[in-house]
Amino acid sequence: MLIILLASCGSKPQTKMYRIGLGPWVGFGPFYLAKEKGFFREAGVDVDLIVLTGVAERNSALKAGRIDGLAAPVDYFVMSAGNNLETKVVMAIDESTGGDGIVAKKGIQKFEDLRGKRLAFQRGLPSEFFVRAMLRQHGLKVEDLNTVDMETSEAGAAFITNKVDAAAIWEPWLTMAREEGGGHILASTSDHPDLIVDCLAFNNEVMASSREDVQKIVNALLKAIAYWKANAAEANQVMAPHFQVDAAKYGAILSGAKFCDLERNRSYFGAEGVRGPVYQVAERAAEIWKEAGVIGRAVKADSVVDPGFIHKAAR
């Protein structure tokens, strides 16, 4: 009996399960790498990864409490906060470095040439935010164009078959549209860094009750990204099957994106007492979505960003 009691007392406590939603985008590979390499378990947490394919599905999962955290671009978390689905962004996972952009016909050489033209993009996703940000920067509004709501694959195909004059899409459709549709890249994230960065955020309940576990998850993901940097070929083999591609294809698609390691997270969130680019992006998103009527109230960047986990990880 004594032996049994000692064994029981010495057993490890069960790890808590956190449900994290993420889309079918290759930039979310580090989540699968951290899970399969056991980095979450080593940190003392367990993570269940749930694929969510659209904005409505994300919103529903957050509202119903089916997920504790979510991986999505910064502008989404501003949009959700403006619709009373509040979360806190705790780290950056990957950023678009040319993988998202606007392809246009040869006759459209500048943004002003888009007036009255047919521009296709999928509403509610990073492509819409990118379009609105670029138009705003050039003194235009979405209403100045003839916009068409299409899924990315459909928008790329529509451009190739001359059904639209321009399309806001991502790779591999961006390259395909340019090469097969006789177009050119009017703007891409290679020239506009910081704008489309996928981040991890948790709901307010988790942030209030489980900050230590959030830190463990952040640390495990940073470990996975560091592992990828040191062992890219092996890591790609682990991550690729989760996106229905082989390792070579996975690596090729990643050429338009970049994982955010600790150094990049530090520069994006800023040092302690210094506001990094994530705050400017959140403020820009708040202005754009408020102007578009997507959110009904102002959202402050500080209400959706918590840099403390990156600051602590950097120590």
Description:
This protein is an alpha/beta fold. It folds into two domains: 14-96 and 196-313, 3-Layer(aba) Sandwich (D-Maltodextrin-Binding Protein, domain 2), CATH 3.40.190; 100-188, D-Maltodextrin-Binding Protein, domain 2. Helix content is 44%, strand content 20%. It is built from 15 helices and eleven strands. The chain has helices at 2-10, 29-36, 39-43, 55-64, 74-81, 126-137, 152-160, 173-180, 204-209, 211-230, 232-239, 247-253, 262-269, 277-291, 308-313, and strands spanning 16-22, 45-51, 69-73, 87-96, 100-105, 118-121, 146-149, 166-170, 183-188, 197-203, 257-259. It has a six-stranded mixed beta sheet, sandwiched between helices. The longest helix has 20 residues, at 211-230. 48% of the residues are buried.
